[in-house]
């Protein structure tokens, strides 16, 4: 089933593109800051990897929550 269509789909794509552009600008700054704070050239990529894993975990949790809410709505509707 399609979740978004028409203008909502365009807005969603635009939002994702904006986030991608913002974080492609911020990632080198975050990497450099981590390397300087931890005094290690490995810290930057590790911090970015940890942030990516955190985001993936949040998306997974939101998806599961949405499925649970849909099941509850179906039970209420009868």
UniProtKB/TrEMBL annotation:
Keyword Transmembrane attached: yes
Annotated InterPro entries: MFS_trans_sf
Transmembrane segments: 7-30, 42-62
Keyword tags: Membrane, Transmembrane, Transmembrane helix
Protein name as catalogued: MFS transporter
């Amino acid at each position: 089933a399609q979740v978004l269509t028409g203008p909502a789909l365009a807005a969603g794509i635009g939002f994702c593109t904006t986030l991608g552009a913002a974080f492609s600008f911020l990632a080198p700054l975050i990497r450099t800051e981590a390397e300087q704070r931890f005094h290690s050239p490995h810290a930057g990529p590790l911090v970015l990897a940890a942030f990516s894993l955190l985001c993936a975990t949040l998306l997974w949790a939101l998806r599961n929550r949405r499925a649970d809410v849909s099941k509850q709505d179906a039970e209420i509707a009868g």
